[in-house]
Amino acid sequence: QKEVEQDPGPLSVPEGAIVSLNCTYSNSAFQYFMWYRQYSRKGPELLMYTYSSGNKEDGRFTAQVDKSSKYISLFIRDSQPSDSATYLCAMSARDDKIIFGKGTRLHILP
Amino acid sequence: SAVISQKPSRDICQRGTSLTIQCQVDSQVTMMFWYRQQPGQSLTLIATANQGSEATYESGFVIDKFPISRPNLTFSTLTVSNMSPEDSSIYLCSAPPLAGATDTQYFGPGTRLTVL
User: Fold this and answer.
1) CB-CB under 8 Å, A95 with B104
2) CA spacing 20 to 30 A to B22: which of A28, A100, B5, B107?
């Protein structure tokens, strides 16, 4: 089993819909959880950062971490065509390297 | 947050040659990281570059193939040596937002390398 699993998509949703992206992981030592957005031909951009379990909201984005299920989610409300990108989950244990998912390609259809 | 720039943004190289990629951070950071991103794959850490010491390489990556320099707290280079088509990839450098922070990273725009 890979340390981090992420469905590569592509995921296509109509503009205005709520988008749900998620990752599962196997390492119970992970404490830091991140979501990156990567536009085509650009470097990954940090979107959300969460420590341990719980929810974090930033504008239209909400990150959820469920450590008991080893499952993290990113929700995008009122999705826009500009949200079309690849979304990578990432996580790490304390003082350890960051492990990335393969990324989910998201298309928001106007 | 750190602003990170990379040069070149892309290059097309011949088999057997070497390419040096530069990474500049707008603030002083203790650690810088080099990643490879192949199509359809997750980001793979190549090595961690600490200023004043030799880089630490991940399993599967060796110094002879990917020599790294870290001459000061804002700059690093990665050389891809004796290139083959399998080295075609995007190479990214990253750094934590604060000196000493280890729990997240910001990325440069990447260098897209094609080896013929």
Assistant:
1) no
2) A100
Residues of B44-60 as b/e, b for ≥16 C-beta within 10 angstroms? bbbbbbebeeebebeee
Percent of chain B topping pLDDT 70: 93
Rounded to the nearest angstrom, the minimum Cα separation between A94 and chain B is 7
Burial of A94 (0-12, 13-18, 19+ CB in 10 A): exposed
Nearest to A101 among B42, B58, B92 (CB): B42
What pLDDT digit, counting tens, does each position of B57-108 carry? Answer: 999 999 999 999 999 999 999 999 999 999 999 999 999 876 555 567 889 9
Nearest residue, CB atoms, B45 vs list A88, A94, A97 = A97
CB-nearest partner of A34 from B48, B92, B104: B104
CA gap A97, B47 in Å, rounded: 10
Quote the minimal CA–CA distance from A27 to chain B in Å.
16
The DSSP output letter for A40 is T
